[in-house]
Hints:
mainly alpha
Amino acid sequence: MTHKVFIVFLVFIxxxxxxxxxxxxxxxxxxxxxxxxxxxxxEAMKGSGNYSHGxxxxxxxxxxxxxxxxxxxxRLRALWSLGRLSAWLEIHIFLCLMGPILVIYHxxxxxxxxxxxxxxxxxxxxxxxxxxxxxxxxxxxNVQGTELTGGQIKGELDRxxxxxxxSPLGLQLMKRVDDGFSTMQRPENLSQxxxxxxxxxxxxxxMKHTVGAMLKLSALSTQQAHQLHRTATARASLMQKSLVLNxxxxxxxxxxAVHLPFTIIMFITLAAHVVxxxxxxxxxxx
Length: 286
C-alpha cells in the first residue's frame, strides 16, 4: 500500500509540474516562432533565456542524477541494503520522465542541430523506459531486485501454498487461483507473449477481485482477511509471472540492447550541446 501511495505521489508531482509549466508559458508556446521575438516575455522564454534555460538545466540534471543514482544502486553491492531496488527504480523513472518534460519546455518546442539529436534521443530513452518498466515488472525478483531462478520460484510458491493451507478458506482461495491460471499456456513466441501479457494481467486483476469478494463473505477478522488476501494475491502474481518468465526475460534483454545505446547517444549529444552553449557565451542566473 505504501509503495502504491509513493507511486501516486510521484505521478501527481510529475503531472502537476507539467501542467503548471504548460499553463505558465501557454501563450508563448502557442505563438508562431517568427512572431515570438515581438513578445514582451521573449527574452525570458526563449530557449537561451533565464526561464527556459533554467528548465533545461534542471531537467538535464534530473536525468543525469536519475541514471547515475539507479545504475550505482543496482551495480554497487555495498548499496544493496539501502532500500528496495523497486523504490530506486520508481525514483529513477520519475526523474527520467520529469527531466525530459522540463527539457522539452526548455526547447520551447523547437530544436535543431545537435540539440535536436539530443532531444529525440532523450524522448526515445524516456519512451522505451516505460516499456522497460513493464517488462521489469513481469520478471519475479527478490527484495534486492535480483531475478529469481526456477527453483526459487517453486520454493516461493510452495511457501505460499503452505501458508494458505493453514485454513479451509485459504485452501479455497489457493484452489481458485490455481484453477484460474491452469487454463493459461506459456507463450512460445513474441506474438503469443504480447497476448499473454494482456490476458494474464486481466486474469490477475480478476483473481484479486475474486479473492477480495470471497474474504468479504467470511467471518475472519480484518487482520486475518488482510493476511490471506496478501498471500493469495502474491501467489497469483507469482504464477502470472512464472508463465511468461522466459519470453519476458528475452524481451527485457532485447529492450536493454536498444535502451542502452540511445542513453549513450543522449548523454554524448547533451554534453556536446552544453559545451557549445558555454563556448557561445550562454550563462544562467545561477
